[in-house]
Amino acid sequence: MQRESVYQYLGKGPPGTTIHYMRKVMGWSQRDLAGRCGLDHTSIRRYELNKGFTQDSLEKVAKVFGVKVEVLFCPPEIAEVYRLPKKVRKEVFAILRHVVNVYWQREKNVP
């Protein structure tokens, strides 16, 4: 099975910000995350600075967080939603769609 390249996600947002955010949410140090991924803590530091990540390393990090690689390229707040159980995640996105629709409806009615 051919792997999907992470480079298609470049430009959608730097993964380092999301990796840092998710690591902090979990209460882990860079060493903690590195140990769980089987990587060196200096690698985690580089990834959080958006330097020197590889396909394999991002796959390891994503797996530890329980998300797909592309989620690491989302804004941190959205990435966190992907960690929720699928049923809850669908409900959250339904609520967000509703909020966005209400916003645009109000914008249409503003003189």
Descriptive report:
With 111 residues, the protein is mainly α. It has a domain at 6-82: lambda repressor-like DNA-binding domains (434 Repressor (Amino-terminal Domain)). It has 6 helices and no strands. The longest helix has 23 residues, at 86-108. The chain is elongated. Mean pLDDT is 84; it is low at 5-11.
Keywords:
single chain, about 110 residues, mainly alpha, 434 Repressor (Amino-terminal Domain), about 60% helix, elongated
Helix content: 55-70%
User: What's the N-to-C terminus distance?
Assistant: 55 Å
**CATH domain class name of the domain at 6-82:** Mainly Alpha
Shape annotation:
elongated
Indicate the structural class.
mainly alpha
Rg, please? 17 Å
Q: How is the biggest beta sheet arranged? A: none
Write out the CATH superfamily name of the domain at 6-82.
lambda repressor-like DNA-binding domains
| Total strand segments | 0
Mean of residue pLDDT?
Answer: 84
The low-pLDDT segments are 5-11
The portion of residues forming beta strands comes to under 5%
Summarize the helix and strand pattern as letters: HHHHHH
Please give the CATH architecture of the domain at 6-82.
Orthogonal Bundle
Using the coordinates shown, work out and report the CATH topology of the domain at 6-82: 434 Repressor (Amino-terminal Domain)
Number of DSSP helical runs? 6
